[in-house]
């Protein structure tokens, strides 16, 4: 009876029933498969998180555990690039450098344009002293493909390359890389400051100052940039800018003795420099007289430290301090503001002798302080200049 009933069904009805049964079966299989993949993904993420935690502990024991963690994560997600790279990082942290390099090279064979892989290979080559490989991989990292945050990653890779070049004395190449980097920096004062410091290491004060100034435009109170810009201005003889930068730095950090000293000397130079273009002849003459008198006092102090008598008891002084002091004493009655006003040549002669005295005293008695230091800096900046 049942057989007769089944036979009585039309062909179309049987096909429809079969399709429905298959649909139910596929749904069940799909659901099971989806649950299976979800479970594998969840397990992969769990082991990856453990690996991350172990790696962040930054010690050898946890690094070894991180290796096992990431390997387990890769069992559940074998094609995950992030897990593969973290396994390489764990191998490096554990000191398994050869294993890490071999592993990374295998990954590199599959994806030679991967920026993160190239950066890890560059770091390994740098640690092993392989300069040519390090340079090649750094360049590949800079121009390679990054999964996320590509531009910040490229900037960091180029910064590492610059440090590597500088550490190997390749200053010219480092300058080129820094120039390329400076032209593409985002509006980040910390990055501009870091690049400025690298320019200084590369002996390029001009571009270092540009980067310090860029940092200050973004963050006017950034202490490191104020100090850097002030020091460059000071060393290049731009004491007005040095005073401005050091003044702002002291406002931010009042107890920094070195910065306060730099500020004081910059102000002394500005207050004592007879070459200042805006001075009247009266003011210039007064500064020349002040410099002359201070230089003679410095000679006297230096001679006292050395146990030499000034003036010399001999009609023909033998010691260089005595000889210079005798010349200064002979000129001294003429070095008065009124005479200096009327006699530009006397201004020049008096100032030349004052500079000579400060330089000789520094040679014989060590580095000066205060106004004596300021006069030495003025002498260095203006030696041979006309008043």
What CATH calls the topology of the largest domain is Serine Threonine Protein Phosphatase 5, Tetratricopeptide repeat
Our estimate of the beta-strand percent is under 5%
Share of helical residues: over 70%
The second-level CATH architecture of the largest domain is Alpha Horseshoe
CATH-assigned homologous superfamily of the largest domain: Tetratricopeptide repeat domain
Strand segment tally: 0
Summarize the structure.
This protein has 387 residues and is mostly helical. It folds into two domains: 38-234, Tetratricopeptide repeat domain (Serine Threonine Protein Phosphatase 5, Tetratricopeptide repeat, Alpha Horseshoe), CATH 1.25.40.10; 281-382, no CATH class.
Descriptive overview:
The protein is mainly alpha-helical and 387 residues long. The chain folds into two domains: 38-234, Serine Threonine Protein Phosphatase 5, Tetratricopeptide repeat; 281-382, no CATH class. It has 19 helices and no strands. The chain has helices spanning 2-8, 11-56, 60-76, 81-93, 97-110, 115-127, 131-143, 150-167, 171-182, 189-201, 205-218, 223-235, 239-252, 257-272, 281-306, 320-331, 337-342, 344-365, 370-382. Helix 11 (205-218) packs antiparallel against helix 12 (223-235). The termini are far apart. The relative contact order is 0.04. The model has no long low-confidence stretch (mean pLDDT 87).
What's the helix and strand layout?
Elements lengths: L1 H7 L2 H46 L3 H17 L4 H13 L3 H14 L4 H13 L3 H13 L6 H18 L3 H12 L6 H13 L3 H14 L4 H13 L3 H14 L4 H16 L8 H26 L13 H12 L5 H6 L1 H22 L4 H13 L5
Helix pairs in contact: 2-3, 2-4, 3-4, 4-5, 4-6, 5-6, 6-7, 7-8, 8-9, 9-10, 10-11, 11-12, 12-13, 13-14, 14-19, 15-16, 15-18, 16-18, 18-19
């Amino acid at each position: 009876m049942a057989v007769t009933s089944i036979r009585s069904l039309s062909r179309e009805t049987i096909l429809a029933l079969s399709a429905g049964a298959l649909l139910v079966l596929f749904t069940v299989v799909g659901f099971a498969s989806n649950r299976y993949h979800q479970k594998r993904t969840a397990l992969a993420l769990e082991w990856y998180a453990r690996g991350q935690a172990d790696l962040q502990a930054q010690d050898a024991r946890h690094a070894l555990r991180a290796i096992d963690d990431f390997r387990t994560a890769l069992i559940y997600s074998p094609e995950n690039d992030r897990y593969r790279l973290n396994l390489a990082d764990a191998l490096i942290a554990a000191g398994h450098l050869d294993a890490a390099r071999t592993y990374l090279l295998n990954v590199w064979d599959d994806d030679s344009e991967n920026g993160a892989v190239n950066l890890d290979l560059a770091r390994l080559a740098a640690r092993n002293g392989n300069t040519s490989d390090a340079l090649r991989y750094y360049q590949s990292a800079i121009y390679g493909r990054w999964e996320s945050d590509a531009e910040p990653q490229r900037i960091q890779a180029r910064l590492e390359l610059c440090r590597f070049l500088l550490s190997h004395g390749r200053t010219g190449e480092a300058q080129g890389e820094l120039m390329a980097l400076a032209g593409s920096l985002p509006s980040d004062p910390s990055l501009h400051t870091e690049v400025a410091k690298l320019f200084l290491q590369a002996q390029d004060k001009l571009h270092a100052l540009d980067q310090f100034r860029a940092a200050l435009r973004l963050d006017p109170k950034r202490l490191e940039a104020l100090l850097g810009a002030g020091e460059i201005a000071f060393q290049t003889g731009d004491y007005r800018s040095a005073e401005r930068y050091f003044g702002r730095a002291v406002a931010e950090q009042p107890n920094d003795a070195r910065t306060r000293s730099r500020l004081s000397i910059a102000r002394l130079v500005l207050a004592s420099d007879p070459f200042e273009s805006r001075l009247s002849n009266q003011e210039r003459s007064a500064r020349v007289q002040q410099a002359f008198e201070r230089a003679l006092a410095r000679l006297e102090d230096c001679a006292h430290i050395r146990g030499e008598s000034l003036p010399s008891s001999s009609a023909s002084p033998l010691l260089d301090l005595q000889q210079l002091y005798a010349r200064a004493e002979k000129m001294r009655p003429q070095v008065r503001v009124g005479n200096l006003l009327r006699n530009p040549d006397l201004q020049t002669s008096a100032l030349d002798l004052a500079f000579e005295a400060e330089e000789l005293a520094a040679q014989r008695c060590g580095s000066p302080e205060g106004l004596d230091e300021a006069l030495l800096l003025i002498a260095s900046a203006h030696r041979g200049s006309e008043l």
